[in-house]
Write a structure and sequence with these properties.
This protein is α/β, with parallel strands linked by helices. Helix content is about 25%, strand content about 20%. The strands form two sheets. The chain has a six-stranded mixed sheet. Strand 3 and strand 4 form a beta hairpin. It is globular. The chain starts with 10 loop residues before the first helix and ends with a helix.
């Protein structure tokens, strides 16, 4: 709401400005699509992330840009995890009103039941995770971790139901987590790189793995931090 705005900060204008500086890049207009659904639960109250529903509308716009058909939201199997209290709750010193109105994390399972996810943990070990992880018993602050087993430097999703050799790499921070599951049914292989933790050359990775599509899925506030921008610059 306009009442809460401070200063001359316009996210849409900032996105447009950033897109104008890009050449050879296909941009995706998630902003206007999400703006059409602001009466829906597209962002959490107690956390800075979008919900999976918000991420779905961005996925729809990606499909439009790529020229493919998005899976209808009604086609997915849904899990729901009540009692989520996110980063705003933490940063507000556990505000009592937020505690009394916790969020619900809704997760949409890919149509493929055979797709697998493997990720590299902090010790460099490769472990089997889940595209949608059961967070029923997780602490209130960790339920967003249902998406692609949380933030890991590198993950890979393999879908044996897709056999056309298609692949992509998603370069992301935590906003990308809720987005990636929707890609599962469109690619045989999805590489997921969290640029905050992954070390390497993105261009070399794309060449060596014969990747067709490179997606950058980040929230706008990422550009507020010279450190985050530096991490991203370091891999590209």
């Amino acid at each position: 709401p306009e009442f809460y705005h401070t200063g001359n900060y316009d996210q849409e204008a900032a996105i447009d400005y950033a897109y104008e500086k890009m050449t050879g890049v296909t941009t995706v207009d998630a902003y206007s699509k999400i703006a059409q659904h602001l009466d829906e639960y597209v962002y959490f109250r107690t956390d800075h992330h979008w919900t999976a529903t918000g991420a779905y509308y961005a996925y729809e716009q990606f499909c439009k840009a790529k020229g493919i058909t998005p899976t209808p939201l009604s086609s997915y199997t849904v899990d729901e995890y009540d009692g989520f209290l996110g980063t705003f709750y933490r940063d507000s010193n556990q505000n009592a009103e937020m505690a009394a109105n916790p969020d619900k994390v809704v997760a949409y399972h890919p149509l493929s039941t055979e797709a697998t996810l493997d990720y590299v943990d902090n010790n460099g070990q490769t472990l089997r995770g889940k595209i949608i992880y059961d967070e029923s018993d997780a602490p209130a602050s960790l339920k967003y971790g249902t998406f692609i087993t949380g933030d890991n430097s590198y993950s890979v999703i393999n879908n044996p139901d897709v056999t056309d050799g298609s692949s992509c790499v998603v370069v992301k921070e935590s906003f990308g987590n809720a987005f990636v599951p929707f890609l599962t049914d469109h690619y045989q292989t999805i590489h997921v790189i969290d640029y905050r933790y992954w070390k390497g050359s993105l261009s070399q990775f794309v060449t060596e793995n014969n990747v067709q599509d490179v997606l950058f899925v980040n929230n706008l506030s990422a550009i507020r931090s010279t450190a985050l921008v530096g991490y991203l610059h370091g891999i590209v």
